[in-house]
Amino acid sequence: MEDNKYTIPGTIIKIGGVLGAVFAEAGGFLGGKLTPLLGFGSGLLLSQITHIADNLTKETIQNWVKRNFVDPPRKGRFYDENQVARILIFNALRRAVELEDIRLLLQYVNDFSKGTLSEKELFELFNGAVVKTKGIAPGDVEGYEKAAGEELAKSLKQKEGDASKIKEVIFIMLTAYQSSLLKQKADELIFKLKATV
């Protein structure tokens, strides 16, 4: 049942049905389920990140570190969960949004939340919103609001800052992510067409 499946943004991890709902609703990084599987106590190594990330190489992450999109590992060779979340956000949006603009979105969230919303928490909100808005047309902000707006507002109420602006950034992230999925699908269809010609 492909209709019940979704992929955690920026990863190759496909989840369907009840398990998908558990990941979306459970607390903790990526639903608290992925963390122990990968030994997240210390963080993740570069090789572990590229293993779960969608089409992301070590060289790309190292390039992002050199260009200051991502901080270098904070715990020896291990990236902490906020860094992993940042990498996955960049990876989820990079097909549709320039890297500088992704950095700007993340900076806006930091500014709008007065530094109280971590990138891990932002990724969790984004991931939950992806699940809640499945089937809604890319860019349908009214649809996003109906499907995920109330829950986002409730989650953001506990944080300081401008919740409506943070929600706006998450809706931009949703639009970009859905656009990147559409582009990926179009590329697959073109590849299939070329194979038959």
Automatic annotation (TrEMBL):
InterPro entries xref list: DUF1836
Protein's recorded name: DUF1836 domain-containing protein
